[in-house]
Amino acid sequence: MAFAPEGTKIMQMQRLFEMVYLLTERGHVTAAEFAERFEISTRTVYRDIDVLSSAGIPVYTCKGKHGGIRLLGGFTIDKSLLTEQEQQDIMASLQSLSAIEVPGAEQTLTKLAALFGKKRTAWLDVDFTYWGGGTKEREKFALLKQCILRGEVLAFDYYNSMGEKSARTAEPLRLIFKGQDWYLYAFCRKKQELRIFKLSRIKNPVGTGETFTREIPDTPYTGEDHPFNGVMVPITLHMGEQLAFRVYDEFDEENITKNPDGSFTIHSDFPQGEWLYGYLLSYGDQAEVLGPPEVRRGIGERLKRMAAFYND
């Protein structure tokens, strides 16, 4: 008697396992669809169905326009000792991983949805790119995510806050969304320390093919490429009603006072640094810095320098 190699048996078991999950999730699958998915013949598909049936799985075939291979209604696989809430939590977590395209998450989500006898709910959709970011931005995010998950060294050109360009090689550890901008947290091999890189200043990124192993520390994000030096400044702003969309987008309700004329008074802490003035000036002539005096003076000085450009 001839015996199938051990590897072949394992492959068949994996195939049978996935067949049951697919049938549980979809309701029915044709033999041709199974054959195409697993790259086997329809004859092998029907042999697998016989194996499942003999193992006590209530699988059957039906003919006709909507025919195919089905499971008896109400069949679910043993869901172990997990409570309903635990099942919901696991499904929600896996959905979030699937949304950011973590390798294997989609397949695992499909299997567990069948295991728990639940319909999948696409409650989360994640697009990391900016509005209007275009194909290049999506490709950049996809590459960074791939390098982080694989532990692959990244090479890129970087422009610092002074506009100076330098070639960098870094070990990417994490993507960070902070203050309405995306950053890459990575170990910079040029500087030999952990740094924060603003994604909009990263140009021409490529994976090097070299892998690395590094633990992500619990210490705060630091480094000269980080826009925040750790010092917070309390700012008071008066903003026109035309800026309402930004007021509620960018500030907590507890920091907002709406005035009788429709304008707003904002009390909030901001990170100290040159970027602060650029941020405040982005409100244009619809906002006034009321305090502190040194920041108000700093805004005035910059406005004078800007006005000098237009004194023809």
TrEMBL record:
The domain of life is Bacteria
SUPFAM superfamilies in UniProt: Winged helix' DNA-binding domain
Q: Where is the HTH deoR-type domain?
A: 12-71
Q: Which GO terms describe its molecular function?
A: DNA binding; DNA-binding transcription factor activity
Keywords tagged on the record: DNA-binding, Transcription, Transcription regulation
Q: Pfam families under this entry?
A: HTH_11, WCX, WYL
PANTHER family, per database record: PROTEIN PAFC, PTHR34580
**Name of the protein this chain belongs to:** Predicted DNA-binding transcriptional regulator YafY, contains an HTH and WYL domains
Q: Which organism is it from?
A: Acetanaerobacterium elongatum
What lineage is on file? Answer: Bacteria, Bacillati, Bacillota, Clostridia, Eubacteriales
